[in-house]
Amino acid sequence: MLRLEEVEVAYGRVAALRGISLEVREGELVSLIGANGAGKSTTLKTVSGLLKPAAGRVTWDGQPIAGLSPREILRRGIAHCPEGRRVFPHLSVRENLMMGALLRRDAAGIAQDLDAMYARFPRLQERAGQAAGTLSGGEQQMLAIARALMSRPRLVMFDEPSLGLAPALVQQVFEIVQEVRRQGLMVLMVEQNALAALGLCDRAYLLETGRVVRAGSGPALMASADVREAYLGGRAFAA
Amino acid sequence: MDQALQHLVNGTVLGGTYALLGIGLTLIFGVMRVVNFTHGELYAFGAYMVYALVSLLGINFYLSLLLAALLGAALGAAIELLLLRPLRRADIDSVMLVMIGAALVLQNAEMWGWGGVAKLVPSPFAGTPLVVGPISVMPLRIFVLLVACALLLGFWLLLDRTRAGTAMRATFQDAEAAALMGVRVGWVNTATFAIGSGLAAAAGALLGPVFMVSPTMGDLVGLKAFAIVILGGLGNLPGAAIGGFALGYIEEFGGGYVSTEYRDAFGFLLIILVLAIRPQGLVAPRERVG
Ligand SMILES: Nc1ncnc2c1ncn2[C@@H]1O[C@H](COP(=O)(O)OP(=O)(O)O)[C@@H](O)[C@H]1O
Ligand SMILES: [Mg+2]
């Protein structure tokens, strides 16, 4: 189980997280929603070790992990699929997937997972030898997700996986996220598309300027008046 | 025609070591975004190490070459750990100033340690040239070319075929994403600087016995290394190899047909032309290995 307690993070002097507490329990899909700049990506970066919290606690299975390197955190089973896909543009699709398995030493298991990814994403197999930068946006997103899964994580964090994709592809991405959860992985997903995120998740947190302002089940948040107004009727939904 | 063939052979020999030099420099720039002003001094360091190992300590010539390259890599690693790592978040001006300072220190240390007189490095190769038809080549030069090509090939295999090489290229392209894959970006930086420096030292170690070894040899070569990198496009590895051979041929043909005295100037003339006409370098950016 992942737990954040009163986590504060600052970029230089500018506070980005002002005391965030949240949890992802075994088998859960948790959504993190909120406007641009609310601190969603910062939260994920803090969990994966890219940022160090100034205060508060981050624990994973009860062990403190704040301050550990991204490598150590990945080794403990938390993968981070970053915002904007961030595939390695000049590496081949296959090399990108192998980068996901960099810390693993079980060659047979890696080969098996590679086959599984290719079976799930035939486009990636077709383009296995091609530079990832030549893929379409949708294909790159699939690659970024597959790459994160290649580490065999127990928790995978997706940062705006549907960003900039055509509606049909957005649907596909959400299906994949659900599949991942059905396989027993914990999922922490950041989404601008609040309606979809709330429909999909077990629980959700609404962030505003570095604070959790509302938490609860998907339907509960969907029903709450301020969420409806700010995210479901307004700009986020229109986007 | 015969003369042209001779220049071609000489240019190839020179180009091989220039390619080593350029690849080392462009690799460091590509991965770390550091303009490495110590590169020429590492070249000189390699040459002096071969001199010291062979002439002063009496160690086997081939073993000395290997040791000189490894010592160059170790010196590079030390520079990265002591000077660059603490400056990871500093602005580019500070980093440049520190690197220029380091180059000055290294150069003066060479002057102080070895004196101003040029040294000769004895090699086990015959002093009589091999003659094949109209061409004559010193056996040592053939050896230098073969070793340079072997190093280029080895470096390419390391980068293209190994896990560590893939991690290095990934870091080259997106350091933060690489960190999320579990790459120790700090160590990749150290390794990159060590490998780049080792290649420069290897180039110096190889050419030391061909020419003479002197404390100022690093200056001109440092400039040439930048010329090679600009020819190939900054951060472009195949470009640096091509730029290295291009510079070798330009110097050799320019020196042979136009003027020996201005031999070194031809390379810089070419740079000015390239910067004016094709500032991205001779090789298209999309062909970058990184
Ligand atoms: N690298 C950075 N340097 C300085 N400020 C940043 C940086 N990244 C994000 N911020 C600031 O931190 C806050 C939270 O950003 P972020 O976590 O990216 O928001 P979200 O992902 O919810 O859109 C914003 O005010 C943003 O401007
Ligand atoms: Mg974000």
UniProtKB/TrEMBL annotation, chain A:
A GO molecular function for this record?
A: ATP binding
PROSITE patterns listed in its UniProt record: ABC_TRANSPORTER_1 (PS00211), ABC_TRANSPORTER_2 (PS50893)
Kindly state which keywords UniProt assigns to this record, in alphabetical order: Amino-acid transport, ATP-binding, Nucleotide-binding, Transport
Keyword ATP-binding in record: yes
Q: Which residues form the ABC transporter domain?
A: 2-234
PANTHER family recorded for this chain? HIGH-AFFINITY BRANCHED-CHAIN AMINO ACID TRANSPORT ATP-BINDING PROTEIN LIVF
Q: Which family does it belong to?
A: Belongs to the ABC transporter superfamily.
- Protein name according to UniProt: ABC transporter ATP-binding protein
Q: Which organism is it from?
A: Plastoroseomonas hellenica
UniProtKB/TrEMBL annotation, chain B:
Tell where it localizes.
Cell membrane
How does the protein's chain sit in the membrane according to the entry? Answer: Multi-pass membrane protein
| Predominant cellular place of this UniProt entry's protein | membrane
Q: Which residues cross the membrane?
A: 12-35, 65-83, 95-115, 135-159, 191-213, 225-250, 262-281
Q: Which UniProt keywords apply?
A: Amino-acid transport, Cell membrane, Membrane, Transmembrane, Transmembrane helix, Transport
Domain of life from the UniProt record: Bacteria
**Protein family (similarity comment):** Belongs to the binding-protein-dependent transport system permease family. LivHM subfamily.
Protein name listed in UniProt: Branched-chain amino acid ABC transporter permease
What is the native source organism of this protein?
Plastoroseomonas hellenica
- Identify the taxonomic lineage of the organism of origin: Bacteria, Pseudomonadati, Pseudomonadota, Alphaproteobacteria, Acetobacterales
